[in-house]
Each structure stands twice: as C-alpha cells, then as structure tokens.
Write a structure and sequence with these properties.
The complex is a heterotrimer of chains A (111), B (129) and C (102).
Chain A: E1 2-6, E2 9-13, H1 27-36, H2 43-59, H3 65-76, H4 83-89, H5 94-101
Antiparallel strand pairs in A: 1-2
Chain B: H1 4-7, E1 14-19, H2 28-39, E2 45-50, E3 86-90, H3 91-96, E4 109-111, H4 113-121, E5 125-128
Chain C: E1 3-7, H1 16-23, E2 29-32, H2 47-53, E3 58-62, H3 63-68, E4 81-83, H4 85-94, E5 97-101
Parallel strand pairs in C: 1-2, 1-5, 2-3, 3-4
The chains are: A mainly alpha (111), B alpha/beta (129), C alpha/beta (102).
Chain lengths: 111, 129, 102
C-alpha cells in the first residue's frame, strides 16, 4: 500500500498504484498519475478515460482490452477502435494504464 | 486492420458453466462470473446455465447497500460485449421461486431440464459453481 | 423459554430450515437471513410448507438481505415480519437463547 498526493490530500493506492477507493477519484489524480509515468494527458486520452469510467459505472467492471477496443470503435469511431491507436495513447497497455488513471481496478484477467 | 487476437484461430472447445447458488450468501456466484470473464479472453464457445438458486443471480433490482457488499449483477449485462450470449435458465427453478423471465436482468433462453441435459451432453468441459 | 432460530441457507437448496422446524419448540421465533430469505417469498415451492408452520412459529426475514437479492418485500408471505438489523438485535435480546442453523 502507498499513497498519492493530489491537491494537498493523500489517497490510498495499492502496490501497483491503483486507487483503493474508487469513489475518491478526481480528474486531477489522472494527471498526476500520468506525469509519474512521463505521460501528458491530452483530449484523446481523456476520451478513453471518460469512456472507461462510464463503462465501469454501467457494468461494475473494468473491460478487457479486447472488449474496450471494440466498444470504443462503436462509440468513438473505427479509427479509434483498434489496438494501434490505443497503445499509442497508453503504451503500458490501455487496460492497465488507462484504468489506473481512471481510478478503476485492473481489468479482470489482466496480469 | 485485423486485431492480433483475430488472426490466431486455435482449437475452440465448448465450455459450460453451471451456476447453482444464490448471490451474496456464498462466494460461488461472483467466482463463477470472474472465471467466465477470463475465459472470454481465450475465444472459446462459452455457455452459462442458471439452475436451482443460481437463477437468483439474474434477479432484477438487486440493491446491496444494506449488506455492505458490492452489487455485481450489472456485470451480467456486460457479457454480451464479451461475446458471451448463450445464457440458459432452468424453467423449473424459476417456477419454484415464483419467478418468471420478466424478473431477470438479461436476455436468456428459458428451457426445461431435458433440453439442458442435452446441452450439457454436448460440452467438452463443464464447470460447476 | 423462547428461543430465536436463525437460518442462513436457502430452503430450496439445503435442509437447514427443515431441521430447524423439526427441532424448534412451539412458539419459537425463526429469522431467515442471507440465502434463506427466498424462503420468505410467496409462490415458491416451499411457501405452503412455511405457511403451515406459521401456526407453530413466528417467522421473520431480514430486509437488507431481501433487497440485496432484488426480492420485493411486498411479495413476502403475509404474516412474516420484515425486520432490519435493529429488529434482528431486538429479537436476540428479547429471546432467552439463539440457535444458528448454519
């Protein structure tokens, strides 16, 4: 267990940096988590993060990468619904990295 | 462009997950759901059976605030996105609990024990929860 | 002596409730909790048996466990009292002893 400090407040994260209490998430947290991994969040990143949060809200799980890719294609267009696009945005893996920034748990089945 | 996972066509086996327990009282229902979600990554032919108290897993209107546990019933609605669309529900088990198909939160095929037995007979792997 | 019996296994799956009812004294209180709450619903395969047993026992069911499973309080067998955790505590303190049929 560790903590991440956002706007002067400490939040608990697990050993891999995922937020422990989902409901504590605030957008500024994503920016700080990204900066720690030398990533600057753009609108394109945020489109995916917001999508993930909506998906979690509806289904109570973080989607598998394959499911995320397909669902993004359906919602945001074909040119974004492929792994090349998503891995360019999130080189550590759209499942792992994007879910972390979005304050979600690691996708089920993701090691 | 084909995604990497669409190119590889390994052997496809028929997997059946048989769910017999009510949610929340024991961990079986949630464990089964997690295994099902993981199995989807391997592109197998997956079917789910809900029988006995397992039919309660699909009951609409689950509200778990009062027992301090996570309500995982919305996740059954995500299965379609994982290409898991074969959900079979035992009619006798619904009847015995005063439930009908309208009480369930996902689209399913309701069938009798004889039809379920035939489906079970066709499987390569059957896992019981 | 009045005794409170709690049952937490589904009567459609296991025989805990049958065992309880076969051993409980007349006038006992029976509280259905966790997976046993389906037994409090009307129009189930065990509803008639429970209605019959209501001459001998008073039945209670834990509301939060009904809600968790999406089971409608309005469809509980008439005469079975829906209680919250506070009611559960009251039942424990009102009775001389508690037996859990786990």
């Amino acid at each position: 267990m560790g903590t991440i400090t956002v706007e002067g407040k400490e939040y608990e994260v697990d050993e891999e940096g995922y937020l422990v209490n989902l409901s504590e998430w605030i957008p500024a947290m994503a920016d700080i988590m990204a900066k720690d991994e030398d990533c600057e969040l753009t609108d394109a990143h945020w489109e995916v993060l917001n999508f993930l949060r909506e998906y979690y809200e509806e289904y109570q799980i973080a989607p598998a990468v394959r499911v995320l890719t397909k669902a993004i294609g359906k919602k945001l267009g074909k040119e974004k619904g492929n792994s090349k696009y998503l891995y360019e945005l999130f080189p550590y893996g759209p499942g792992k990295q994007a879910c972390k920034y979005a304050g979600l748990p690691k996708p089920t089945g993701c090691v | 462009m084909a995604e990497p996972w669409e190119e590889d066509e390994g052997p496809v086996k028929k997997f059946m997950f048989v769910n017999r327990k009510a949610p929340y009282g024991t961990i079986y229902a949630l464990e089964s759901l997690e295994v099902v979600l993981i199995s989807a990554a391997f592109d197998q032919d997956v079917s789910l059976v809900f029988t006995d108290d397992g039919v309660l897993q699909l009951k609409k209107g689950q509200t778990t605030d009062g027992i301090g546990m996570k309500n995982f019933s919305p996740t059954y609605r995500a299965l379609e996105g994982y290409d898991i669309e074969k959900l079979y529900v035992d009619k006798e088990s619904l009847d015995a609990r005063g439930l009908t198909e309208d009480d369930l939160l996902v689209d399913v095929q309701v069938m009798g024990k004889a039809e379920l037995a035939d489906l079970m007979d066709e499987q390569d792997v059957v896992m019981s929860f | 002596m009045t005794m409170l019996h709690t049952v937490n296994k589904s009567p459609l799956d296991r025989n805990n409730l049958d065992s309880c009812m076969s051993m409980a004294k007349k006038g006992s209180k029976i509280l259905l909790i966790e997976d046993a709450v389906i037994g409090a619903m009307d129009n189930t395969a065990v509803a008639e048996k429970i209605k019959g047993a209501m001459n001998d026992f008073s039945f209670y069911v834990l509301g939060p466990d009904l809600q968790a499973r999406g089971l409608d309080e309005g469809k509980v067998i008439g005469g079975i009292n829906v209680v919250g955790y506070d009611g559960y505590v009251d039942l424990v303190t009102e009775t001389d002893n508690v037996q859990s049929w786990v």
